[in-house]
Design a protein that fits this description.
alpha/beta; Rossmann fold; 7-stranded parallel β-sheet; 5-stranded parallel β-sheet; about 25% strand; elongated
């Protein structure tokens, strides 16, 4: 019996959410008196997983699985579950893992709870606290199936070091043709920038910037903070920014430690998609903008005056504390 954790990777490197999922898995394993086994796909170096409580890695190296493929990955993980006799499977709550989680639950006849924000309230029975109602509330959900799947919300549990002795074992799952009924034809990625999914800080802007030519200060602020850039739906719809930067209920969900919204009024769909962020800062000329009600900190002012001053002060602070 063990806990199995799926560790997400990109271009052969483990993602930040892999370490958060491993940290969560270690906590659950401690409550259950067992160990954590991880499964990784085409990862060049798994050694860091040992820092976060993983005792064994099932290392899959297969060219066909180099690009994420939900059904094929789900089949491989289901096979790994049977191999190690896992009763609990831990995933992240990324878009890919949510797609994977539903398929995996069907294959294993398992209960699946995504968006978990804390370690289980209890393990017998397994009760998990998760976000609900478009992140406006919480639900304590009991999983009573033999195999249980939990998806950990980004930045909810945190990355916690628990060093263990790590062993690696090659694992060759039997992926069949039916697992590849669909295939990726092309993958278009932004390179050299912090991605929204992995960012601790997100700087987002809306129609208040008046045009795409004014995005330079948003990018500069993001660079100073080591943040990802994002935008509201109307901005991406007008073609000012790519749809890959659109955050909100109909775009990418954000669960960053800091979310800065500049010139965004705060429509319900946008607020629902960013409400999981821990600290929200709003800069807007309209004191009645809905976003101020959801913000932790707010500045009523013109972004074209406030943002350059903020950049200047942050640069001064960084220079003094270098």
């Amino acid at each position: 019996m063990s806990i199995l954790v799926y560790t997400e990777a990109e271009s052969g490197k483990l993602k930040k959410n892999a370490f958060e999922a491993a940290s969560y898995a270690y906590k659950v394993a401690g409550e259950m008196g067992t160990e954590v086994t991880a499964i990784s796909f085409n990862v060049s170096d798994n050694s860091d997983l040992g820092k976060y409580g993983v005792s064994k890695v099932l290392k899959v190296e297969d060219e066909k699985l180099k690009t994420f493929h939900a059904r094929a990955y789900a089949s491989a993980i289901a096979e790994a579950v049977k191999k190690v006799g896992a009763q609990v499977v831990i995933l992240s709550s990324s878009t890919d893992s949510k797609y994977l989680g539903g398929l995996l639950a069907g294959m294993l006849k398992a209960g699946y709870v995504p968006n978990a924000v804390a370690a289980p309230d209890s393990v017998q029975p397994m009760v998990v606290k998760r976000m609900a109602f478009s992140n406006k509330g919480f639900a304590h959900t009991e999983i009573n199936t033999d195999i249980k799947i939990i998806g950990v919300s980004n930045n909810a549990f945190g990355i916690i070091e628990n060093s263990t002795s790590l062993q690696e074992e090659s694992f060759s799952p039997e992926a069949g043709e039916k697992d590849f009924a669909t295939r990726s034809v092309e993958v278009d990625k932004v390179v050299g920038e912090v991605t929204i999914a992995d960012a601790d800080i997100v700087v987002s802007a809306g129609r208040g910037l008046k045009g795409p030519e004014n995005w330079g200060m948003i990018e500069e602020l993001a660079e100073v903070l080591g943040a990802a850039t994002a935008c509201s739906k109307p901005v991406s719809d007008m073609g000012w920014r790519s749809h890959g930067e659109h955050v909100g209920q109909t775009g990418k969900p954000v669960a960053s430690n800091l979310y800065i919204a500049i010139g965004i009024s705060g429509a319900i769909q946008h607020l629902a998609g960013v409400s999981a962020s821990k600290v929200k800062v709003v800069i807007n000329t309209d004191p009645e903008a809905p976003f101020f009600k959801a913000a932790d900190y707010g500045i009523v002012g013109d972004a074209f005056e406030v943002v350059p001053k903020l950049i200047e002060k942050l640069k001064e602070f960084k220079a003094q504390n270098a």
